[in-house]
Design goal:
The chain is α+β, with helices and mostly antiparallel strands and about 170 residues long. The chain has 6 helices and 7 strands. The strands form 2 sheets. Strands 2-3-4-5-6 form a 5-stranded mixed β-sheet. It has a two-stranded antiparallel ribbon with strand order 1-7. The radius of gyration is 22 Å and the shape is flat.
Length: about 170
Amino acid sequence: MSTEQYLLDTFTFTQQHETKTGQIAAEKLARAIEGLVPQRGQVFNWSASGSVDTTERRFIRLSVNGSMFLQCQRCLQDYEYPVVVDTLFEVVNTEAELDEDEDDVETPDRVLASLNLDLFGLIEDEVILALPYIPRHDVCPSLPGELSEEDASGLETEKPNPFAVLGKLKKS
């Protein structure tokens, strides 16, 4: 697919409820694979569809499905991590609108209206955001079961706060 096919006129795309689909090889996502273990020919399937709601707000729904090979930071073995993205973007007309209600979790992500929205860049950004900050297996196959479980449970349990006693004294 040429780079021109990744450019969207957001007004036409949303007003006409258009849909685009395609595939991208993981190797083409240079920013996403930077610093990762070598990829092994994975392909991401993607689709983008435009819509307009009853209040004339314009939206683009982006779905991406595929996988990346990552290195577990616990056992240092490679593993395949599923990447599933389903994001709704509201198309806004001004940069000021991009930041409105950004703290509201109900508000969809926003993109600026454009005659040439870079859909490839949007796909790559969403793949990057879907990757874990610290990749690791749920249960490492190369570590003894007890060690892997202790390590995992140690990450989830909180240590007692040494200042909790002071908090109790303050209340009395």
